[in-house]
Write a structure and sequence with these properties.
Layout lengths: L1 H31 L3 E4 L9 E4 L4 E4 L2 H5 L2 H17 L18 H5 L4 H14 L4 H13 L5
Parallel strand pairs: 1-3
Antiparallel strand pairs: 2-3
Helix pairs in contact: 1-3, 1-6, 3-5, 3-6
The structure holds zinc ion.
The site of zinc ion has 4 residues, from helix 3 and helix 5.
């Protein structure tokens, strides 16, 4: 019993540190690509994350750490960052061949602007993949880091 408890808390610690490591790694990649990551309430009420195209600022709502969705949120915003890089400052879709899982549909279907809907579909598609972290890192490398050393 004690052994099991100990083992599961060790596992939890291991998982937590992987999560934190991935968050830091992705944040670093974004910053190397010229984005500023700010852990503060986004200027848009109720948003977990927000990317402002013009200033290349990314807000991450501190509440996502308590909700356990910090990485998902940063991954989502990283896809938007790659979209900004791909369009050379003007956000565009990456034409990825992955679809978001069904439960995410209402999340991007609520956007009435069709262009916005496509951008969001892509961000949710990446975010909901089992290898979402690797995908986000690869997209940043592919679209944002060609000209950065
Ligand atoms: Zn989004």
């Amino acid at each position: 019993m004690l052994k099991t408890l100990l083992l599961s808390s060790l596992l939890l610690i291991a998982q937590t540190s992987t999560t934190e490591k991935q968050f830091r790694e992705l944040k670093n990649k974004l910053e190397k690509s010229g984005f500023q990551v700010i852990i503060e309430l986004p200027p848009k009420r109720g948003a977990y994350g927000l990317l402002q195209e013009g200033t290349k600022k990314i807000w991450i709502n501190p509440v996502v750490f308590d909700l356990g969705i910090a990485n998902q949120t940063l991954i989502h915003e990283s896809v938007h960052a790659a979209q900004v890089c791909a369009g050379n400052g003007k956000i565009r879709t990456l034409r990825l061949k992955i679809e978001p899982i069904n439960y995410a549909r209402p999340l991007f279907m609520r956007y009435t602007d069709v262009h916005r809907q496509d951008l969001e579909r892509e961000a949710y598609a990446v975010q909901t993949q089992p290898n979402n972290f690797e995908l986000a890192v690869n997209l940043l490398q592919k679209y944002c880091q060609q000209s950065v050393q």
